Amino acid sequence: MDSFELNKIIGAILGTLLFVMGVGFIAEAIYEPAHSGPGYALPEPTGNQTADNGTPAAAPVDIGTLLAKADPKAGEAAVKKCQACHDFTEGGPNKTGPNLYDVVERQIASHPGFSYSAALSAHNKDTWTYENLNAWLTSPKTFANGTKMTYAGDSDDSDRANIIAYLSTLSHSPKPFPQPKAPAGGQAPASGQTTAGSSSVAPAAGVPTPSTNEQNGQNPTPASSAGVTSASSAAEPSSAPASSAAASSASEAPTSSAAAPASSSSAAQ
Questions:
Q1: Which of 1, 49, 194, 226 is least enclosed by beta carbons within 10 angstroms?
Q2: CATH code (residue 96)
Q3: Could you give the number of structural domains in the chain?
């Protein structure tokens, strides 16, 4: 092969490269994305998140309520997926992760012979409470950002509760579960409040009851009619002397003996 043929081959290669570069420049110029203006940071999600249908998102259930319904036997079956990295027996060895026997209420990042990540060691002033275990199993990277643990977490509430309930049994003195929190709006009424169906108004002291009237041998009389009766009874003595006085004056005789019966009659009335 002479130099002329070699130059043609090299020229063809360079021409092809230039053609490909030119096509790339042209395509970039045609399909360059348009810039609509400066971007802006999206707001952080707030605690009052809503679902896709617009209804408020369900609040997380507290660990006390979850553990009250947890099944340790189901948790024992669920931790089989963890046995490749953890040992659950008393005095067992460390594997990729530390031994988890008697882990509840144990100081975080404190198991002997295991090298913890700096992210988890930053929590060594705290203990593995039920709340911390729940947060850790939900998302290890959220609990300790930078942890070496590759486990992504468990979003199923009942599954996490079963696992934690099983971990609590791995001890000679299992720690008691926390009490479930009271639901919102479930407080008992205050001492000054009354419940539905009851009345806070005391009955009138002067109103006679049917039992009192029956003991006295009287018919029960309503309070309103009793007031009318007493009023008319009080008016009768004043009207009776007046009528008797008129009657006595009309029948008054010249003699004193006729006036005496009249006065005695009015006195009797």
A1: 1
A2: 1.10.760.10
A3: 1
